[in-house]
Amino acid sequence: MAVVGCFTGSVEDYQAHHAAWVLEVRPERCPHCGAEHTCIFWGSYARWVRLTTHRVSIRIERVRCTVCHVTDALLPSFLHMFRHYALFLIQKAVTLAVDAGLWGDELADAVGPFNQPAPSTIREWVWFFALSLNFAPYESNREQSRQASADRSASGGNMRCQSAPPRWCAPCS
Ligand SMILES: [Zn+2]
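A: This is the predicted complex of the input protein with zinc ion.
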């Protein structure tokens, strides 16, 4: 399991200051059994964080409760527990897709250069994080996105969806 602690700096800042940060975010109360002052440091492991142009190796510290013996990783808030890419990239992709109606190559180019992250990865993020939650903004942006797509089609742009289109995307004809 994991405990997510707020870290507002860059990934490189985390590399430089994580030893002090883990002392601040170590839980005073066990999140599992509620015992106080029982979470002790319990080793660490290396983890890669992927960004648009490079990847960075960071250390993740673990804590273990001396009462219930459950172990947690102390994750900085720029990480998702099951994703290699930094969370701000995932948020950027989902926001651009949902709020700005970007999709396909347009979305991939706006998120990162040289197809990093891969367009298929970005599509999976959008499907997983946005569509599965059935956010209300889809409906409010639907007409706007449909109009934007119609405008692009009228200008001769190749805006055909590369896979099943999201709900706010006008159907390809
Ligand atoms: Zn406990």
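The radius of gyration is 20 Å. The CA atoms of residues 104 and 163 lie 9 Å apart.
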